[in-house]
From TrEMBL:
Name of protein: HAD family phosphatase
Listed CDD domains: HAD_Pase
PANTHER family for this protein: HAD SUPERFAMILY HYDROLASE-LIKE, TYPE 3, PHOSPHOSERINE PHOSPHATASE
InterPro entries assigned to the protein according to its UniProt record, in alphabetical order: Cof, HAD-like_sf, HAD-SF_hydro_IIB, HAD_sf
Originating species: Faecalicatena fissicatena
Highest taxon listed in the record's lineage: Bacteria
Pfam families the record matches: Hydrolase_3
Amino acid sequence: MTDRYWIAVDMDGTLLNSRGQISERTCAVLQKCLDQGHHVLPATGRALPLLPEKIKNLSGISYAVLGNGSVVWDWKKTCALYKKCLPEGSAEQILKDVREMYRVHQEKAGKESRYYAEVISDGKVYADSLDREYFLTAEIEGNFAEYMLSNHAYVKRLEDQSEILKKAEKINIFFEDVLLSKKIREKWQKVKGIYTTTSVAGNAEFTAEGINKGRGLAILKERLAIPKEQIIAIGDNENDVEMFKEAGISVAMENAKDPVKQQADFVAADNDHDGAAEFLEKFLKL
């Protein structure tokens, strides 16, 4: 067995349970991996400010793949080893198109639903100030409101913030109507220069074409000459599949959909039962 592994691991739906929390057991296992010389590589659609504090507090992380591969972060030097923005003008176009598709869909559906956009730009996360007002008063199940109110910079009319949007690395839009999310992803999958994926039910994520977690992992492999057989990739959703292809060992969570599981070498227990931690304990004999 290879002595030391690079463990590329997703956050939402993998390390985080259904309540958006990381258990003490999972943190302890990740720290033990680091203490024994393995490399824990957060690989997520989130930006650096949105990483859970328990992940930030781990001792020994060297790199992270952020924004679905739009940024490869050097943890120790606190700078981007690699960064790729959306094509010029596309961020504004995406946000305005989503607004129009939402309007048309609402008229046809005959029922009210909402969507919420966040833009990762130059390492910061921006959202529309109207959404903040809603999150402060609305009763929303789970921890979504808490997520949106933490580490986000709120601005008026996000789609008109040209200085922010021209540096956008990724756009993430959460839809209450899952069907609308699917329609928008399907439309933008056909647009040259744009890559779309999803990481949780009802969201649509946009990066530059060719940018995904797999590409981010490949960049690290090339820069650091990491053999494929030394990489373990653990994830639960569509945006993790490209990462699986770059790893010698791929692990899907039990809570993943079947198409994701079919792309993996192993299936771990679900994220509410510390599946990632349990797999690492057994595989690495911790």
